[in-house]
Design goal:
Metallo-beta-lactamase, Chain A, 9-stranded mixed β-sheet, alpha/beta
Length: 394
């Protein structure tokens, strides 16, 4: 059966195919290495681009429809990330058009700064065109975005309106179309009702911009892929003038069982909570992080939790003091599949599946994450408790 699947993948693009024992990825004619050359019709590809401390992910559907998730920079007045991301995208697509851009949240490592780098650089200096940009609702939920959010608000109300065609993201699968067979379902938008709108402007510890991250589940065949920006998985007050809130525990039942998890917040200690991972149970974990990460990412506690679920891949090494527990550092991390069943990550072969999961009380949480799966009234509590100043406490 596996041989037939590989042969079927070859026929899709009429190219040579290497039947290597162990399920190695079929060789694609005209590429330098699997996933790093021009996209071929029939393939779903998800490229986690190695841009150091910056974050950017390119998704190409089987019919060629595209979505760029974030386009960041390591610093405010930098364009290093854009100078990597732009040429990489052009090499994959052979064009400079993006059907969709999704900005998970407005921190500089995910957006860059208008006038310098990131998405602004791609559009204004590299000639990229964008069909539609999806963003969070920063008018109703100001959060803590600092100067980056303030500058993006100004830009999107001006020149960016015509260049990026911004639209406020909403929960569900009605805003993104990556072609037949692919669904993209938004499962986190502005804290999913857990965070109150507005808030006192003089609050010394407003919610972190991370809390408002957009998250989505992409499904193709049996393959489920989750990406959630820098979603928070613990409630606490930081030392930097903002607070985190556990949003992951409420997003978990909307996401459900996952094959591939693009790890929240670069492997932060305060994300990828035990409840979240118990619900998703990912078989593959992907971390976008730069060498010598100044924030200590990936954190040892997060790596330990992730290693108990499945394989781990990183774009770069991150914190040199973290024991990676056998994780692979591979640079650009590319996921590829033609049928949503057999898929490859960095040349390693995996098989997507919908394993049987039990939710006996129907509350949305599988028994692995549910403290009492016989009662719908008992669900996981937010890690670190609830912050009544901003969080809706149940």
């Amino acid at each position: 059966m596996r041989l037939l699947l590989v042969l079927r993948g070859c026929l899709l693009f009429l190219a040579g195919c290497s039947l290597v024992p162990g399920g190695r990825i079929p060789a694609v004619s005209g590429t330098d290495s699997p996933g790093s050359g021009n996209w071929q019709s029939g393939w779903l590809e998800i490229h986690h681009i190695d841009a150091g401390q910056a974050t950017s992910t390119l998704i190409v559907g089987p019919t060629g429809r595209t979505m760029l998730v974030d386009a960041g920079e390591a610093d405010w007045e930098a364009d290093d990330g854009a100078l990597i991301v732009g040429p990489y995208i052009k090499n994959v697509l052979g064009s400079s058009h993006l059907d969709y851009v999704l900005i998970s949240h407005f921190h500089v490592d995910h957006t860059g700064y208008p006038g310098y780098g990131g998405l602004w650089h791609l559009v204004n200096l590299q000639g990229f065109t964008v069909g539609k940009l999806l963003r969070r609702d920063f008018s109703r939920y100001p959060g803590e975005g600092g100067g980056t959010l303030a500058r993006w608000r100004e830009y999107l109300a001006g020149d960016g309106q015509d260049l990026l065609h911004p639209e406020v993201a909403t929960l569900g699968d009605g805003q993104i179309d990556l072609g037949p067979g692919v669904t993209v379902r938004l499962v986190a938008v502005d804290g999913n009702g857990l965070l109150t709108a507005g808030g006192p402007v003089d609050d010394p510890d407003p919610p972190s911009e991370n809390d408002y991250s957009l998250a989505f589940v992409l499904r193709f065949g049996l393959l489920d892929y989750f990406s959630g920006g820098d979603l928070s998985g613990e409630t606490l007050v930081s030392d930097f003038g903002y607070s985190y809130h556990d949003i992951e525990y409420a997003v978990a039942p909307l996401a459900g069982d996952i094959d591939v998890y693009r790890v929240n917040h670069h492997g932060s200690e305060y994300s990828s909570s035990p409840t979240f991972l118990a619900e998703l149970q990912p078989r593959v974990n992907l971390i976008e992080v730069g060498n010598d990460n100044p924030d200590g990412h990936p954190h040892q506690a997060a790596i330990d939790r992730l290693a108990s679920t499945g394989a781990i891949y990183l774009t770069e090494r991150g914190d040199p003091d973290t024991n990676l527990r056998g994780a692979r550092v591979v640079g650009h991390i590319v996921l590829r599949t033609t049928d949503g069943i057999d898929y490859w990550v960095a040349d390693d072969h995996y098989v997507a599946a919908d394993p049987p999961r039990v939710d006996a009380d129907g509350d949305g949480y599988f028994q692995e994450a549910d403290p009492d799966d016989s009662s719908p009234l008992v669900v996981p509590a937010p890690r670190g408790g609830c912050d009544p100043a901003y969080q809706v406490c149940r």
